[in-house]
Amino acid sequence: MKKKRIAFVFPGQGSQYPGMGKDFYQKYPQVKRIFEKANEELNIDLTRICFEGGKELLESTANTQIAVFVVSFASFEVLRNEGVNPDVLGGHSLGEYTALVVSGSLDFLDGLRLVYKRGEFMEEAAQKRPGSMVAIIGLDKEEIAKILRKVEGLGIVVAANFNCPGQIVISGEIETVERVRELAGKAGARKVIPLKVMGAFHSLLMKEAQMRLKKEIEKTNFKVPRIPFIANVNANFIEEPQEIKESLIRQIVSPVLWEDSIRKMAEWGVDAFVEVGPGKVLSGLIRRTLGQKLILNIEDQKSLCKSLKILRET
Questions:
Q1: Distance between CA 114 and CA 288 in Å, rounded?
Q2: Catalytic site includes residue 93
Q3: I need a surface site. Which of 62, 189, 295, 314 has the fewest CB within 10 A?
Q4: Which is catalytic among the residues 15, 72, 75, 93?
C-alpha cells in the first residue's frame, strides 16, 4: 500500500482562543517545558496569556502571535512523539515561522524571538498608521481586482489574503477599506466580515514593521529545511536560506497566497492535511479549496486521539 503523503499546516493570527494549549500543557511534560522556555526567554507569562487571559488580552497582536506560535509548536511536539511526521509544511502568515522551526530551517529559540519581535513591530506600526481588514465572501479574484481599481487614488488598500475560492481578505486604510466594503456589497458579495485585528496586515501600512523585522531576520541563522516548505509569497517550494529570509521579509507587506499554496501541495501528491495548532480556520479553507480530501486538526487531546485513529487506519 502506498504511504500517505501528509502536509502539516500551521495557523496564524485569528485562530487564537482563551484556553488554547491548556489540555496538552497539563498532560505532557514536554509541552510544559516549551512554555517554560518561552517564558524564561521572553520574560513573559504565556500560561496566563493563553489559559487565563480573556479575549482582550489575546487580541493584542504582540500577545497573539507569540501565543499561537508556541501552542502550535507544542502541538507539533505532541504529534511527533506519537510518530506522525509530515512530508511537506506550510503556514498561514505567522504560521510560516512554526513551519520553518518544524522543518529544521529555524531554531526554536530564534523563531521565538523573531515572532515576539514581529508581533511587537506590527502592533506598533498599526498604532502609528491605523488600518483595518475585511473578509469578502462570494466574489472571485477578478471581481475584487475590478473593485480595487475603482478606489485607486483614494488611499492604501490591497488584497491581503487569497484564502480559498470566494474568500479574499482586503487590508488598508480604514476609510478606503470601508469604500471597498460598500462596493463589494453592491457587486453581490454574500458577506463582508470585518476582522478583529489591530491593523492593516500584509499592506504597505506595515512598511515600518517590515523594515524593523528585516534587521532581525538578516542577523538570524537559517538552514536549508529538512522537510519541504511552501512559502506564502509565491505559493512554491523554497529552500535556500537567503531566499527564505527574503520571503519572510516580503511577507509582512505582501499577500498570503494560501489557496495557491494548498493547490500546490495537492499537485505534489498530498493525501492528508493536518492543521496543527489552535482552531480549525485552515481546515475550513482547505475543504473549500479541495473538497473531499482527508483534513484533520490537532489542538487538544480529543482532536489528537481522533486524528491519530484516522491516520493509523488509512
A1: 32
A2: yes
A3: 314
A4: 93
Range of the domain at 140: 131-194
Which DSSP helix (H) or strand (E) runs through 276?
A: strand 272-276
The stretch 158-187 carries a mean pLDDT of 96
Regarding whether 282 and 139 lie in a shared domain, the answer is no
Reported pTM: 0.96
Q: Which three cell numbers stand for residue 4?
A: 500517505
Contact criterion met (CB below 8 Å) for 178 and 202:
no
Confidence grade of residue 1 (pLDDT, cut at 50, 70, 90): very low
Helix (H) or strand (E) holding 95: helix 95-103
Say yes or no: 144 and 281 in one domain. no
Q: Is residue 214 part of a domain?
A: yes
202: annotated active-site residue: yes
| Three cell numbers, residue 42 | 521572553
Q: Which CATH number do you get for residue 155?
A: 3.30.70.250
Measured between alpha carbons, how far is residue 159 from residues 16, 156, 231 in Å? 23, 11, 17
Residues 87, 93: Cα–Cα separation, whole Å: 20
Asked whether the beta carbons of 253 and 202 are under 8 A apart, the reply is yes
CA 37 to CA 152: how far, in whole Å? 47
In a domain, 246, yes or no: yes
Q: Which of 202, 203, 247, 254 is catalytic?
A: 202
Closest CA to 91 of 76, 77, 113, 109: 76
For 179-214, the pLDDT digits (tens) are 999 999 999 999 999 988 889 999 999 999 999 999
